[in-house]
Amino acid sequence: MKCIITALLFLSFLHYNGYAQQNWYPFKPVAVEKNSAINMSSWLDKPAGKHGFLQMKNKDYIFQDGLFI
Question: What is the mean pLDDT of residues 19-48?
Fold first, then answer.
């Protein structure tokens, strides 16, 4: 019985997934102006990787240079 229910759920997911993909629209982002209200480039810490690799110490994330997130 569990196998039949699992198979029906899987088939309904496949049907829904195909339906959803047919109704998707293409995502074509445009460039965001520097002075735009939605520009978040200043939030980035430049240059990328200046703190080293991200690691996990116990339950915390820490960069190689000791910066905790």
Answer: 77
